[in-house]
Amino acid sequence: MTMPGSARKFSNHLNRLVEFDYFRPFASCIAVLAFLLLPFSSSAAWSIEVIADNQDRSVSICLPRELARIAFNLYPDESANFAFSPLPSEEMDVFEFEDFVYSFNFKDEPFSDEDKAFLVSEYSYHAELARQGVKSSFELPEEMREAAEEFMLYLDGCADLRENSGSASIPKAWNELLLLPKEKRIRRSSWVLYMLGNLDSFLGRSESAHLKYDELRKLVSDGFHDSAGLAYNSFKRDYMCEKDLCKKLKFGLRAIRFYLCIPDRQSVDIIRFIVRDFNYILDGVIFGEKDMSALAGDPVCAQILLAKLLDSSTYTYEPPIATLKRIFPAFEKTLPDKPELLCYSAYFMNDSALCRKWASSCAENSLIRIWVLAELARKDKDWDLASKLYRKWIAVRKSPSLLLSPEAPAEIRFSIGYEHLDPYDFSSSGIGILSRARENLALCSIHRREFIEALHNLMLAGSFTDVNYMAESVLSRDELIKYVSAFEKTPEIFPEEKRKIYSYWIRYDSQDMTQDMTGNDHVFNFLKYILGRRLMRDGCNSEARKFLPKDSLRHLDSLEKFKAISQDSRFDADSRALALYNAAKIMRWYGMSLQGTGGWPDNFDCYGNYDVEPRLPHSEMPPDLIAREQANAPKIPLRFHYRYIAADMMNEASDLAHDIQLKALALYIGGRYIEIRNPQMADPLYKKLVRLRCGDLS
């Protein structure tokens, strides 16, 4: 399926819009439109470019997206019926005057420039009188009167309306104008109908106002002039004048559908206004100010109300789950043809029985059905079934035929929402739903003791805190070496464009030094570095060499050189002690880059500044996993564990040295390394230093 020329042209407009900073605040609304055009696209690549990077990526209903989806389903041909220009200005008086000037600047008008200037001057004068309720007549030459007749009648009607403000009757001059032949009223008919619609709206006659606005749009579609954008604004006026709640919501949907097809700032502002108003109205309904039964009994309004109840991002406090449970039977009666929405609602309410009931009514490959059943299986600790369902969900989710299917708008909404189509997303706002599925699949693999597969799924999910946890605490050293070796041999595991997604920075503890891990494969470098630091912690320095970056190798060379001297009997005791002293300094200042843990206890991934907890729910981990964690933990399981190693090395250097000054320096520096975080462990070093200078004080 290829994208029609109009859709392709429109997608290009969207891409250009979000390139400008001015439009970036409106990227969410633009994104809605972009995704709703997905069914016409042979490739989703263009739509990725118009999605803002800061959108919500949680597995949830999004009210603006749902409103757009319902609007497109309810009014599928709205964009084809109307092609109205936006409002050129915010001032109606400016509209009116500019429209008159525009009307008399036609190339086929038989008037000279002087005559046109005279007409504009006369019109401006009489229009000002009409706004004050004063009726006057144009003093025009005979040859100009026929061309200006509709404008004269329009101003007479304006004067009558101002003079008899509050009157429900239509000005006589406006009735005369609407009875003129088409060619004699082509420029002011739209104004009369717009003003009559506004008059009916002011007087509370919404049905009559809707008829006026409909007739206005029909006239403009038939070729009547509308340079002021009155037909464009009439959709918003339709929404604002309606008093009946159900009808008001439907007019709002119609307006959203229309304005989504005109990607300009005014349209985005109007959509934002309507969505905010919907939120206000629905809050009043949900929190008891109005009755919900009327909305829940209407198929369209029920979808809107349910979308609001499910969109937890629109609530300051906890979502009203109790209200959803109370009204849900009404939704079941009203929306039996929306099983995906009802299934997700049951999932939102944490009702397993209802989930299974409505999941059975969903299509076999429904993304919502598969996801909910997988979550239920995980809840029941049926890890084999959950693993199978998550794999199926990932396969269906990645299928272009289903992803872009116009017959499955709910599926598109659930599987994409506002998120990128990029499964490897490292935005600070959260993780994508595809990545969430891979995380859950990894949890199933852990329970099935498939630890290497769990690590691989976490790599694909981009869950690097969990990758650290698995690689450092769960996998054995041999298992991790096996995976890294396999990863190196099959780099196509990650597409070429995804290999550069993870640029990692290392800040050496207490040193103003940085190292950028650039290269052709950031993900592989990240994985190698985890293994290299783990091998260093296990004392396998020679094996660690091929996995550490160049700067770390420089420090490792110095560390091993000093350690070798400290153990060489050919050197005197003080030389050996001094070498061990230098080795301890390297361990203290470069221990984070040489053997720091990515997660607990060193938190290498955040430069050691704060704790980073894995996303995997620890409460759902198998109990026997604790034994693996303990076996793979650093020998000193304390924050900045390498500092304690450096302090021990300083203590050994003190014992080895004969020189009293070197002994004292080593003890003092060793205590300084750990005194802030653990003064109790530093205390023996300081006491030893005191005894060294003052003898036994017992």
Question: Explain this structure to me?
Answer:
- With 698 residues, the chain is mainly alpha-helical.
- Helices cover 62% and strands 1% of the residues.
- It has 35 helices and two strands.
- Strands 1-2 form a two-stranded antiparallel sheet.
- α20 packs antiparallel against α21.
- The longest helix is centred in the last third of the chain and has 23 residues.
- It is elongated, with a radius of gyration of 36 Å.
- The termini are far apart.
- The N terminus is likely disordered.
Which helices and strands occur, and which strands form pairs?
Layout: H1 5-17, H2 27-36, H3 45-48, H4 63-74, H5 78-81, H6 92-103, H7 113-131, H8 142-163, H9 172-179, H10 189-202, H11 206-221, H12 230-241, H13 245-259, H14 265-286, H15 293-296, H16 299-310, H17 321-334, H18 339-348, H19 352-359, H20 367-379, H21 383-397, H22 400-403, H23 409-416, H24 433-447, H25 451-461, H26 464-474, H27 477-489, E1 505-507, E2 514-516, H28 522-537, H29 541-544, H30 550-566, H31 573-595, H32 625-632, H33 641-656, H34 660-674, H35 679-694
Antiparallel strand pairs: 1-2
